From TrEMBL, chain B:
Keyword Transmembrane found: yes
Biological source species: Natronoglomus mannanivorans
Cellular component, GO annotation: plasma membrane
Region feature Disordered, mapped onto this chain: 1-32
One matching Pfam family: ABC2_membrane_2
Keywords: Membrane, Transmembrane, Transmembrane helix
Protein name: ABC transporter permease subunit
């Protein structure tokens, strides 16, 4: 693909002019997309990790990205978050009048030791012009009020992840990208994390998350994109994904959609 | 940190509720002033320095070593300039070591934890981040350098015989003012090496890597540059008339030259020039600026 990759703040209603996808996305049809990714390619050397991936993130919705290990989920999330440059395609943001356009939770969040949860979040809040009160409110929202004055090195893995989610929402970004927010958490904490994610969407954010917990995804996500071998294999509401392959559950639909054997981690590049 | 995506300002923003369901209202102007961002990063670094016992320990060790040398070397009794002569070589070794200790993990730790990635989603440019890190660490380093030197100065003031009563400087006179010059120049020297250490921290990818690079830089700064100069002199690669200028090439020799010219030569009277102060100052500024630019480029390339 010869298109110049771009990652711009732009009007999704305007035609995408890179020739990859010329769809005009009007508000009524796309439910106010906060971000439109079109024809995204990414390669690590000769290995094509993402191939012509298009994804629209409407405001006020949770979009779940599911797929086997090695399918390119984290790469796609990092490209959308602006941390990796795509080798092709465009990413367009709708919002401009915001101090922070994208919030991001890495797969393994970690914070500088020696600081309390409140101090950590206050630092990030300061970067968007907010104060400690805002940081405290974010801590309360994710349920970390009681641990606010605990040093981050004394927080459990689940608490660190919640702190990471609170960090991802600092500055009220219109797009929030969460890389496996429920990973490594006990079932109760995982449900709590997804509840928090639902609240973010209820407050108007376009949330994109990756997860292997298909049951929770089916329950919580408004839209699901199944990524397989670097391509979107299926996309839509959970019911649409199920109906597409006449499956009773999202897990069954996933198994029917994803190619290859379960239980085998694919190594990208060998077959491309 | 922001990745510098170009923005289209003619786009209609999505209408947002004035008040969110959770009561968090963070709508702010779309820009935060650069000075505010740099200050936020610097404050974080200062807190880190204050809360890291190793840095306090380094300062205490430096106090003990400098006061010890001042007393044992006889400088305490002889005066400020003799004390400067006693302290010069130890300072050339210790200040870079302390400065590297303050800076070699400053950026590296954030990168290893993935916090640099997170910071890239904030309206913080790599330049602002590097400046904030440098300023924060610099404040800690200045305390770690200046307090021990003040302790050494106090040692001279308390034990010197006869007591010095000159507070202005002129040729042939020892004075506390001359030692204050040493303190200022040593602080500047530390800041220069700190900039090099921050650059190393931004370039290194692992702690081991960072430590190795820091050690290489220290050896080059402490010994390599001087050996190269001596070698250049011996092989006539550097002419005698150029020597005082070439001496300014490394931070160490520039610092040494400035101390000799501004302190020791003042008392010892006329003699051959030890250095070119102007070129030395220019060299120190260049090392600092180039290092910080290098750190900024390295941070902006990390992903």
């Amino acid at each position: 693909m010869t298109d110049t990759p771009t990652h711009t703040d732009s009007n999704p209603n305007a035609p995408i002019s890179n020739g990859v996808d010329s769809t005009v996305c009007d508000d009524a049809r796309c439910d106010q997309p906060a971000l439109v990714a079109a024809g995204i390619d990414h390669a690590y050397g000769d290995v094509n990790v993402l191939q012509s991936v298009s994804l629209t993130l409407p405001s006020g919705t949770v979009t779940a990205l599911v797929g086997p290990n090695g399918s390119g989920k984290t790469t796609l999330l990092r490209v959308i978050a602006g941390l990796l440059d795509q080798t092709g395609g465009t990413i367009r943001h709708r919002n401009h009048d915001v101090v922070r356009s994208i919030g991001y939770l890495p797969q393994q969040p970690a914070f500088r030791p020696g600081f309390t949860a409140r101090e950590t979040l206050s630092f990030y809040a300061a970067l968007v012009g907010a104060d400690e009160d805002a940081a405290t409110k974010h801590l309360e929202r994710v349920g970390l009020k009681e641990a606010a004055d605990r040093p981050v090195e004394e927080l459990s893995g689940g608490m660190i992840r919640l702190l990471g989610i609170a960090q991802a929402t600092i500055g009220n970004p219109p797009v929030v990208v969460l890389d496996e927010p429920g990973s490594g958490l006990d079932p109760g904490m995982r449900v709590h994390v997804f509840d928090v994610v639902g609240e973010l969407a209820a407050n108007g954010a376009a949330v994109l998350l990756s997860s292997h917990d298909l049951e929770l995804v089916e329950r919580s996500a408004d839209r699901v994109a199944v990524l397989d071998r670097g391509r979107i294999a299926s996309e839509g509401a959970p019911t649409e994904i199920r109906d597409c392959v006449d499956a009773d559950t999202l897990l069954q639909a996933y198994e029917a959609t994803v190619t290859g054997e379960t239980g085998t981690v694919r190594v990208r590049g060998d077959s491309s | 940190m922001t990745t510098g995506h170009p923005a289209d300002n003619d786009v209609e923003p999505i209408d947002r509720e004035d008040k969110r369901e959770d009561g968090i209202d963070e709508r702010r102007p779309p820009t935060v002033s650069p000075s505010h961002l740099i200050e936020a990063v610097a404050r974080r670094e200062i807190r880190t320095v204050v809360r890291t016992p190793t840095f306090a320990l380094l300062a205490v060790v430096l106090v003990a070593v400098l006061v010890g040398i001042t007393r044992l070397g006889g400088g305490a009794r002889a005066g400020y300039v003799p004390a400067t002569a006693d302290l010069l070589t130890p300072l050339e070794l210790l200040v870079p070591t302390v400065a590297v200790a303050f800076g070699y993990r400053a950026v590296l730790d954030d990168a290893r934890r993935g916090e640099l990635d997170v910071l890239r989603t904030y309206p913080l440019t790599p330049r602002q981040f590097v400046l904030g890190v440098y300023l924060g660490r610099a404040i800690g380093l200045l305390a770690a350098i200046i307090l021990p030197l003040l302790a050494a100065m106090a040692t001279v003031a308390l034990t010197e015989t006869p007591s010095i009563r000159f507070y202005a400087t002129h040729a042939g006179s020892d004075s506390p003012v001359l030692f204050l010059r040493v303190i200022v120049l040593t602080a500047v020297f530390g800041l220069v090496v700190l900039a090099v250490a921050v650059a190393i921290s931004a370039i290194a990818s692992t702690i081991k890597n960072g430590l190795a690079l820091a050690l290489v830089a220290l050896v080059l700064l402490l010994f390599g540059a001087d050996l190269a100069l001596v070698s250049g002199l011996n092989t006539d690669l550097i002419g005698d008339s150029w020597f005082v200028y070439v001496l300014a090439a490394s931070p160490n020799s520039a610092y040494r030259g400035l101390i000799l010219e501004s302190t020791i030569s003042v008392v010892s009277g006329t003699g051959p020039r030890a250095a070119s102060p102007l070129v030395s100052v220019f060299s120190l500024i260049l090392w600092t600026v180039v290092s910080l630019i290098g750190a900024t480029v390295a941070v902006s390339r990390q992903s």
